[in-house]
Amino acid sequence: MKICLSCNARFNISEWNCPECGFIPINKEGYLCFAPDLTKESEGFKYIF
Ligand SMILES: [Zn+2]
Question: What is the mean pLDDT of residues 10-25?
């Protein structure tokens, strides 16, 4: 499950863009940007799923 950082909608689709508001969590480097403070850690994305 993914959670939109913009509207907090919860959705379960393969795409990362939010079906509710269209928000796409990609930063300027082109990486998915859910947790800017945790991206340097190997388990930084674990809490999302
Ligand atoms: Zn959204």
Answer: 87
